Amino acid sequence: MMNHTENLTRYTANFVDELAASGLTDVVISPGSRSTPLAMTIAEHPDLHERIVIDERSAAFFALGMAKKKQHAVAIVCSSGTAAANYFPAVIESYYSRTPLIVLTADRPHELRDTGAPQAIDQIKLYGDYPKWFHEMALPEADDPMLRYARSKASRAVHTANEGNQGPVHLNFPYREPLIPDFSLENLWGDRSEQSFYTTIEGERRLDEEQLKRLTTMLTSFRKGLIVCGPQTDPDFASAVTELAKLWQIPILADPLSQVRAGEHEKDLVIESYDAILRSETIRKHLKPDFIIRFGAMPVSKPYLFYVKDHNDCAQFVVENVQGYREPAGNITELIYADGAELCRDLATYNMANAFDAEWLKTWKKMNETAKIHLLETDTQPDMTEGEAVRCLAEAVPDESSLYVGNSMSVRDLDTFFLATPKNVQVLANRGANGIDGMISSGLGAAAAGDATTLVLGDLSFFHDMNGLLAAKHYGLNITIVVINNNGGGIFSFLPQVNHEAHFETLFGTPLNIDIGDAVKMYGGTYEQPANEVELTKVLNQSYQHEGLSVIEVKTDRTENLQWHRTKWAQIENALLTYLR
């Protein structure tokens, strides 16, 4: 008869081995006592790469960034109690951004729950409805049925996180003491089959011929169409959608997170300046479309949201790879559930070259060219604005790299100033819940997955996750972090709150007045504070030449930045209105 330690060891080892058999390669562990069986067994397994990130909130976002980059599930492991609660923000982001995350929380055994025992909180469905699947694991036993049970749950966790609309799964492990596994046992990893416990055969998600004919027949009744590409990560999509647009001769409004602005595919019909173009209500009304086909999530651009609200009678088609109802404008929409790249290729077989208005395309292209002239125009003022800093970064970011962008002003400036480029740059962000927490850790997680990585974010986002920098020091990760420091919440300067001076600075501006250079020194990184675009370009290029953590702080003034943006937008609006006349 097996004793407690053997039951614990074999049960956990079979579970962990099946994670690897099902394709999992990376696990992020936060130290704790109750999670000892999982943590030690994962560290012992030859096919799993574990990383230790002490703070659980940081660990979860680190895993999230890695999963976004790899487009495959990453697991996180922590102890019981509030350690597990610190995963919650990343679990929410995982759900809304459709990023696969396997959450493995250790727990007190059932007899210690609700008794006042330490670190014993209610962890059953701790994350509510956000996980795609929750399961309370059985207490460890090591007879054959229970080992198959452990393997089945591990396999299901990996497949469920990765399949369909990817997202988080949560498995909760109650463990009794003693917690130390015995790795000297024979046949420690159990009897793995030649394939994972569960295998899936998933067919292509495509419209049939009748559905395609119905859709194309409907579109031929229109003259002015738009393809809109929102945030998405499919590497095959950009070439497929740009080829479709070329054949049909209609413009593409491409979000910076769509992966359509960067790469070797043709971009003649890509309208990357639509955020600046659509800021004018007059221009929005002039550019009335007959139909919009949107791929991916809703674009970052708020002017685009106003645009579709202004034209709520326009026929709108939203393509979801699996399922979903992502339509925040509240417009009547026909949802198409099909793989986006495959749908583009299927639609490209239908000859629609002369179906649409050539002047419509010409107008969009001319407006885009006009807007870009002003966006690229260099100012004579000595100080850098946030837009200029992001424009400089967009030009300097190296080929074959990742660009991770923070929320609030950073992603909006990237939307404006990250123009079409032949460089292969994958642009990532946490746009599921749009929070500012965990950004440093997310960027470092992406850096840990391989490519050279640049993270651009604001000072409040930097402050929120400064302890995430420890992972860069611990693992020697190569990352360039550009901190746009306007000493507070710069995005609020663009909102109506700015007009309430009595409360603005205290409640919204929230200046930090901290020395970022001291924080970088504490974590062993290099620090630079360039004064202008020439210096910024220089230090950016230098950062890409050496290993480790590089932090570049760009100090800006919120009031000057607001005025600079407004001036740019006014110049663009005047130029476009002149063209339309």
UniProtKB/TrEMBL annotation:
Q: Which residues form the Thiamine pyrophosphate enzyme TPP-binding domain?
A: 435-554
Catalysed conversion reaction? isochorismate + 2-oxoglutarate + H(+) = 5-enolpyruvoyl-6-hydroxy-2-succinyl-cyclohex-3-ene-1-carboxylate + CO2
| Pathway membership | Quinol/quinone metabolism; menaquinone biosynthesis; Quinol/quinone metabolism; 1,4-dihydroxy-2-naphthoate biosynthesis; 1,4-dihydroxy-2-naphthoate from chorismate: step 2/7
Give one Pfam family. Answer: TPP_enzyme_M_2
The Menaquinone biosynthesis protein MenD middle domain sits at 216-405
Q: Provide the GO MF annotations for this entry.
A: 2-succinyl-5-enolpyruvyl-6-hydroxy-3-cyclohexene-1-carboxylic-acid synthase activity; magnesium ion binding; manganese ion binding; thiamine pyrophosphate binding
Swiss-Prot/TrEMBL cofactor(s) = thiamine diphosphate; Mg(2+); Mn(2+)
UniProt-listed GO biological process terms? menaquinone biosynthetic process
Q: What is its EC number?
A: 2.2.1.9
What keywords are assigned to this protein?
A: Magnesium, Manganese, Menaquinone biosynthesis, Metal-binding, Thiamine pyrophosphate, Transferase
The free-text note explaining how the cofactor binds reads:
Binds 1 thiamine pyrophosphate per subunit.
* Top-tier EC class: transferase
Q: For the Thiamine pyrophosphate enzyme N-terminal TPP-binding domain, which residue ranges apply?
A: 14-125
Give the family this protein belongs to, as stated in its UniProt record: Belongs to the TPP enzyme family. MenD subfamily.
Task: Describe its partners and assembly state.
Answer: Homodimer.
Q: What does this protein do?
A: Catalyzes the thiamine diphosphate-dependent decarboxylation of 2-oxoglutarate and the subsequent addition of the resulting succinic semialdehyde-thiamine pyrophosphate anion to isochorismate to yield 2-succinyl-5-enolpyruvyl-6-hydroxy-3-cyclohexene-1-carboxylate (SEPHCHC).
Record-given protein name: 2-succinyl-5-enolpyruvyl-6-hydroxy-3-cyclohexene-1-carboxylate synthase
Source organism of the structure: Lentibacillus persicus
